Predict the 3D structure of the following.
Amino acid sequence: MASPSSPASAASPSIHTASVPPGSVGFVTPQRIQFEEPLALSSGQVLPSYELAVETYGVLNEQRSNAVLICHALNASHHVAGMYADNPKSVGWWDNMVGPGKAVDTDRFFVIGVNNIGSCFGSTGPASINPATGKPWGASFPMLTVKDWVLAQERLADYFGIRRFAAVMGGSLGGMQALGWAITCPDRVGHCIVIASTPRLSAQNIGFNEVARRAIISDPDFHGGNYYEHGTVPKHGLAVARMIGHITYLSDEAMAARFGRTLRAPNANGEFHYGYDVEFEVESYLRYQGEKFSTYFDANTYLLITRALDYFDPARNHGGDLAKALEVASAEFLLISFTTDWRFPPSRSREIVSALLKNKRAVTYAEIDAPHGHDAFLLDDRRYHAVVQGYYDRVATSLGLPQRRSVTGVLA
Amino acid sequence: MASPSSPASAASPSIHTASVPPGSVGFVTPQRIQFEEPLALSSGQVLPSYELAVETYGVLNEQRSNAVLICHALNASHHVAGMYADNPKSVGWWDNMVGPGKAVDTDRFFVIGVNNIGSCFGSTGPASINPATGKPWGASFPMLTVKDWVLAQERLADYFGIRRFAAVMGGSLGGMQALGWAITCPDRVGHCIVIASTPRLSAQNIGFNEVARRAIISDPDFHGGNYYEHGTVPKHGLAVARMIGHITYLSDEAMAARFGRTLRAPNANGEFHYGYDVEFEVESYLRYQGEKFSTYFDANTYLLITRALDYFDPARNHGGDLAKALEVASAEFLLISFTTDWRFPPSRSREIVSALLKNKRAVTYAEIDAPHGHDAFLLDDRRYHAVVQGYYDRVATSLGLPQRRSVTGVLA
């Protein structure tokens, strides 16, 4: 295993304060870390070696006690906060959550964003070269589970010399990884923060994933997963998959408020065109999202990650008893759900809360009345962020970290 | 226009009582009726002539006052009740609702099932020959609206010499047609029965339709809608479209109860296979439904009907005021919704109820506590059928039709 050149952040926000908004970690540089030791996977297969793309924000303290790991969901990456110097629009996916003075305060915490294996944003995945063949892995890339990601991330903790994370945190699939940490590496996580997540997918959730996969797999450009060699991309299938996903991320209410039945470009009489080109704003939006996604996301990654979602079910090896599965967990927990999230509704978070309470674990649970659906976990909601910030204040106090400095304009 | 050979049913259930279950209309024979007068459509296009596939059950009385029109939803047809002599499994899609002694009692009512233009079960549609070219219409078949279907059906009423329907009835898209009848031909419908429907699709509804259409249109076998000439069928796209639709027809609860996370055929250790072949029962079910559908349903019909769903919005020409749109309606109304229907939830039916009450129309509204989701309108639910039966008893009484005879085993 490689050794860290510096455990501190590659970015130094103070240098760039003139050109970055307040509360931003500023310009950041991702790093890639190579792990040579083979990784035994849940499937029985072995990944001979792997690379993880990582970003860090803030400074790891001497005791290495202030580290926070942020786990990403389906289509995100290690780029959690800040922006890249060559593209000021490249803002991290949880930039509203992570930064100096923000809910996850990089003035006090050392935050790691990591891209998972199997993904397509820099870590080893299906588009990477299989060292055994010299060709892209493609369809032969091994199947993955949430536990596999946790084990790969554990080596990242070792790399940084972090014995125990102050917190492991994520939304949606990221929340599953946080929960996975609490179960698989119970002594290495102080606080487990699980947002808009579920202890297992429902039949409906699996159904939507399966339709998305069928759309990709039945695209003739997919070539059984080996499209890299054919110089094709299953764009149509990937776009359809993304459109399906997108609908499930938004609440009915949010779609009504944002699009309603507004026409995109009615004819001269304000009427329909009567055809299959875009009539309604919502069609235009979904098509755009689907097409954009198909230009940058890897289809094999989409398949792998949706399958890992399907497989996640820590209670499965405990006769379906989630409380038993969580018996080993020693972390304290924060769970957050959103009222209009119909993908992973509050009832799913409450299952986790109940299972933890059966084990007499310390649990904080917040159900945020938000209109946005599942996507709410990514959005700027004052009450939501206040809950997270309050929780991190408590984490910081318990670890004896310095007081939070007041930052004007951020969560005032 | 052709003249009816006999306005009564083509089927005579009594002949077959030995071989058909009690309450069935028995063996039925569809008829096709040709309409030569051009039909001006909402789009501005004109359908030069058309044929309607029709089934009838029961006997039209002398006053022609006991006729009920049943309108179908996306994937159904004129085959509402009974079965075909050559295939005893070919039971009509609303056979549990329509028959002697059933909620829609064919001992008292003359029931017409009609396949809409644009469909693929016998009426003129995209797969029919365009008389102007001698080739299948394909992509050149005109776009349709609910109002177009109502106008085409109105000629069917004329054909049977029915001045006024005792009732026009339908579920989902069929309910939209019933509502369309009450608005477009107010003096020709006595009772309007709208089940599991909506006054207009939501952005989410349109979104799901659009994803289904993209799946079909981006299938290379679609050939811009002219796949008949290419000897292909866009099966993959159609299967994906059907899978999406199917998920929206079922409630989360119903899918959980029916499939849960049950594995289809786990490996010898009861574990996952780790791959993209079927792991979960729900995947197997959805794939099967999708594949089956793609063998008999026409892709252009799927596009046409989903677009007609999108377009339906009677309030649109009244500044969005549904009450204004319903001002012309003189029918009495029965509305029914199902608690777990998230496609067209009870709130959508209540919008119609409110708009009717603003116009001081007679409205009966039932919200059925059923676990099945949108599909509930097709299922055998005692309370639901009792509401419909009670309503039809009132219709029969007001028309002076004979009393319902008691049939053992049916809605006892």
Summary: The first strand of chain B starts at residue 31 and ends at 35. Chain B has a mean pLDDT of 94.
